[in-house]
Amino acid sequence: MAPPAPLSVTREWLKPDETAKELLVRVLTERPFLLLPPPLHRLPFRVGNVVEIVGTSPCAKTLILIQAAINCILPKEWKGVQYGGLGRAVMFVDLDCRFDVLRFSQLLKRRLIGFRAKVKGNEYEYDYELFTVCMRRFLYIRCYDSLEFLATLKTMHCRLQKEKETQADGVYLLMIDSVGAFYWMDRALSSSSGSNGRKSLSLQCVVETMVQEIQRLLSVHPMLVLAAKSASFGDKQSTTEVIRNPGKRSSVLAMDFKSGPQNLLHREYMPSVWQSFVTHRIQVRASDDNSKHQNNSTYLTEWLLPWLKFSDKFIINDDGLLVVF
Prior knowledge:
By secondary structure, the chain is of the alpha/beta class. The protein has one domain: Rossmann fold (3-Layer(aba) Sandwich), CATH 3.40.50.300. Helix content is about 35%, strand content about 20%. Strand 12 and strand 13 (about 305-315) form a beta hairpin. This is DNA repair protein XRCC2-like protein.
């Protein structure tokens, strides 16, 4: 039997590498909490989170993505003016093929004019140099079918690496608008035969591959994923099952808004592999109550994952900015 180790050796072995305080400081520094602009401001996020924004069309889902993108590409400070942004790049993958880049640039200009007016007092000028820097941080990709989208994900590592070399911090937000754009096309093709007699790529296989490729990207390039998704609704009589856990295999998710009748049933059509991949889910819908804002449409939001017992209201003002009240 070997003799016991000296007490000094045992103490050295038991000595921790870092204290709990040092651990928290390191984790929060490497993966800090990220607060997004309204209506995504209720919860803190971290890189690696997958946030799904679900709602019918139109209900300002793309505008929510745009507001978050602008907040990301704006610098924290520029020439003595505080902009409160992150100064990081955004990768926007357009699957709906309806994104208006000109509209995006106009909203960015209005944000810059608003910040400059607070400091300089000029309501019509903006810093063109800063505008150019911000637009360079916005990376846009358009895909027309699932195979093109999968090819984009498989080759995205090289582009992200290149951006990381040119821009020190690299891409921080990966946006997908909208993640279910090719669902019905893929579903129809999955049941048909190809010209070589083999079955086409199934819907389940497409979604599984998509999730795997995004996971691989996140393991190398820490990013926050924001994915818009069009909603499909049924009536109250179709089911009474209410599900808050996306990991369960089910095709129905009931919506419950305090401000409206409980007759909206969101039918979950994405495969369970995607539902399990989502870490946060917020639902957006248009409100029938426009009494206080007759000239602007009112929208309601509710957090479903995690479930929060309140909802937010917001409008889109004349400048195209989203305002929560």
